[in-house]
Write a structure and sequence with these properties.
This protein is mainly α and about 350 residues long. It has helices spanning about 10-30, 30-40, 60-75, 80-110, 120-150, 160-165, 180-185, 185-205, 210-240, 255-265, 275-335. It is elongated. The model is unreliable at about 1-10 (pLDDT under 50).
Amino acid sequence: MPVQSKPAPLPPWGSALAGSTGAVLANALVYPLDIVKTRLQVQVKRKPGETGDHSDPHYASTWDAITKIVADDGIQGLYAGINGALLGVASTNFAYFYWYSIVRELYFKYQKVPAPPSTAVELTLGAIAGAVAQIFTIPVAVVTTRQQTQSKADRKGFLDTAREVIRSEDGVFGLWRGLKASLVLVVNPAITYGAYERLKGTFFPGKTRLTAGEAFLLGAMSKALATIATQPLIVAKVGLQSKPPPQRQGKPFKGFIEVMQFIVQHEGLLSLFKGIGPQIIKGFLVQGLLMMTKERMEFIFVLLFRYVRKLRSEQLAKAAELAAATASKAKLAIPITTK
């Protein structure tokens, strides 16, 4: 049986472009679930018999949230803030995959004994890449979260929402609200991609190119594990980046620990996992579609790079032949003189 040649590796920007393209396509397809899980995570659970005003709708479940959002805002309400969200998804994933490729290459470069990285190493590489990506891209996430939680009457564009955040108590630093929680949450993509690499090596050892179905399955499984492990931090980060609940009387939270304490005090311990249903469904679909698309995009880029290299080689060969022919003609054209 012939040995299959390993495809040429992509440069970091190639992996980043493939990953961000897959992420944008996947998130665009399931964006309504993102709206629903955000609304569920920022609402404060009502006590029995407690009622709220009409401007502050309460959602009992994922389906209840979908029906109420459509009733109040129409179908477009399920896509509020999608432009900023996809911009954030593209920038975050591009930065993540770029730095993940860089740190992974550096790891293999300085590794003394060639061997697959352990789970701990995979998690560390993913955490480093995620931390760098979050520092540069969190302002987009803050603005998007605000847009997703705005009512129809208060809805603003991306730039107007950003100005609103800057005019708040924190000033321009408000665009980096939740940074600490986000840096802690780098364990989520670290767990996701670390688990993906380990599952890939376990279920498909030695296989360099997965099928679409295999990539979807592994991506979905790895994301579900990461979501369950980090859901309380996800809820706390959303609470930090959205407007404070009415009980806070406009006073913003100072940190994610304070958000978690507030949730436990007013809603109970299990509310740290509110919105986990649509969160897992969204993560399951997005990560599965992302990894499936990323695998295909990487393969397309590998073929594209091979084609470009082939064209360049042919052009260089023709240029060399032309130069040689020109030199030969010039030599023949020199007149022979005798004394």
